[in-house]
Design goal:
2 copies of one chain form a homodimer. In chain A, helix 3 runs parallel beside helix 4 and helix 5 runs antiparallel to helix 6. In chain A, strand 2, helix 3 and strand 3 form a beta-alpha-beta unit. The first copy, chain A, starts with a helix and ends in an 11-residue tail after the last helix. Helix content of chain A is about 40%, strand content about 15%. By secondary structure, chain A is an alpha+beta fold. The longest helix of chain A has 18 residues. In chain A, the strands form 2 sheets. A 7-stranded mixed sheet of chain A has the order 1-2-3-9-4-5-6, sandwiched between helices. Chain A has a two-stranded antiparallel sheet with strand order 7-8. At the A-B interface, strand 3, strand 6, helix 7, helix 8 and helix 9 of A face strand 3, strand 6, helix 7, helix 8 and helix 9 of B.
């Protein structure tokens, strides 16, 4: 990769690790290296704006990783929202973009509401009444700037549990809770190995009676915004519709919305502060476990890690060392403290 | 109400009944009449655009029902999206707007992606780790136009189950499933009377382990878009912050996004058709219950009801007759068939 491209990608990957979202940080390098080896990933992609309007744009990621085109898309959305009040940018011909929340947060840090969604190249969510997975874990992130409080940052997979949570259970030798995954007959799966092999996760809500059709609908909404709007490939049809495609053609959607187009200076931040304060001071079920606001755990993690560094288990360090050697790169990580 | 205002409101209420969303249709008249009697609802409101940009606007509902300002907001969002690719309109100083899906569908029928969200004047959703309700059932609707298929229409409360579902269980003398509602100690409630009296619904997902924090986050997202962005009143703080306010000051958010700003003519519709077809033909758990797409049940209901009329149970007819008499209106409903 070109140095500037690699540097921006690395910074966005580390941003996920800083926030405690290890499943979407430097640990992804193993998969990225595999895709590179298979020719699934362009390492010198041309990222370009292929279409542009006063408040919209379409970016082509050139078949490379999604971080650089997505950050560029959000910067463009932010720029457009300064002039038009709102900016919406779609990205096609991309790949994994890391943690969705990182892009939504870019907008909030610029004083704007930010939205980020992404399709996924392989499927994992089973529709209500179905048994086969038809969507990836299709994440949605939403961030908004407050005043005295840090920003609100929602960053969620539209499945009941993210794939990373299943992997974590496997790593710990634990079973997963009933309701996260099903088998080919729709029966609950609690063995993380089976869940990871079959990739049949329930949509947020789980069964129909508990609102699973809403999670299924949200996953479809994310697919429409990320894949259909950008002209990316819908994973279940990719092999049939694009049999010769070397790349996955993943799509993303990034939006920024300027509260200043609707309200007076500071009014939005002040009201969001009041809402956040009301939530934090609302009565907890267990006094030891106060009511949190979306983004709180990730920010606490980031503060801790900015001070004391990002803990990397020995197997991950070994992995990074091996990948660096294979890529002919100097291994520059230094143990801290 | 002025005749044109009443006619548009009535049409939007009936649209909900046509789609089988009786909880948000003419049955709401009882509550609206109560609000009118209490001075909570302006019947001759001035609906006006108070702020406007190239792709955004803010509408003040004048303290009246939400249907007219919301339909106007979506028409304005549609108009702006024709020029700018996207249009986002916030509504403040409003009240109940009926079914969110009706507004999102307006955009889809115009060939655009539509989004509609709303705050609620009284609270119902309990945050993760909390015991007191801090959000209304905060609905989100998302619609998108296909080609050979009817539009995709997601219309959902961000609670596990809508209040209307609890009322339906009560009407049928049934208990509600464990997981829909809790009591003041966070214990599950299955008696619909208790659930309706306490109004402590779980966010979509339910408990933390089943992703309830995501439903809580989505409810907060809807509140930020609908209430904080427009400058409406956040229900838990209304009494303290606006002690003298006669009206509820509910807020909504309406957005239209033009696929034509991103892709060539017909490409979006064709790809959405392929996705919808793939979902419909995906393997069902029970062959008698095929996989559906968001909007299917409501559309089937609408087709049936456009042919055969909207069934109104006798108590509802009696209610409408009484309300008409109290309002000094002619009762014009005719039994059909």
């Amino acid at each position: 990769m070109a140095p500037a491209y690699a540097a921006e990608t690395a910074a966005l990957m580390v941003a996920a690790d800083l926030r405690g979202i290890e499943s979407h940080g430097v640990g992804m390098l193993e998969l990225y290296a595999e895709y590179r080896a298979k020719g699934r990933l362009a390492t010198a992609p041309t990222v370009r704006v292929v279409r542009e309007g006063p408040a919209t744009a379409l970016i082509d990621g050139g078949g490379g990783l999604g971080h650089v085109p997505s950050a560029r898309a959000m910067r463009l959305a932010i720029e457009k929202s300064r002039a038009a009040g709102v900016g919406a940018v779609a990205v096609r011909n991309s790949n994994h973009f890391g943690a969705a929340g990182v892009y939504a947060l870019m907008a909030a840090e610029a004083g704007l509401i930010g939205v980020a969604t992404s399709g996924v190249w392989n499927v994992a969510i089973v529709p209500t009444f179905g048994v086969d997975p038809m969507f990836g874990t299709n994440p949605i992130a939403f961030a908004a700037p407050a005043g005295r409080n840090p920003p609100f940052v929602l960053d969620m997979a539209t499945s009941t549990a993210a794939i990373g949570k299943v992997k974590l259970a496997k790593m710990r030798g634990e079973r997963i809770p009933e309701g996260w995954a099903v088998d080919a007959d729709g029966a609950p799966v609690t063995d993380p190995d089976v869940a990871l092999a079959q990739r049949r996760l329930t949509p947020l809500g789980g069964e129909r009676v508990m609102g699973g059709h809403k999670g299924y609908g949200l996953a479809a909404m994310v697919e429409i915004l990320s894949t259909v709007l950008s002209g990316a490939a819908y994973a279940p049809l990719r092999a049939r519709r694009y049999p010769d495609a070397e790349r996955y053609n993943v799509g993303h959607f990034l939006m920024a919305l300027d509260p200043g187009a609707f309200r007076g200076e500071g009014d939005f931040r002040a009201d969001l502060d009041d809402m956040i304060d009301a939530l934090r001071s609302s009565r907890p079920r267990d006094p030891a476990e106060p009511v949190l606001v979306a983004g709180d755990p990730e920010r606490a993690c980031e503060e801790e890690r900015r001070r004391h560094g990002i803990p990397l288990p020995a197997p991950r360090v070994a992995l990074l060392r091996r990948l660096a050697a294979e890529a002919g790169c100097e291994f520059v990580l230094q143990p801290r403290g």
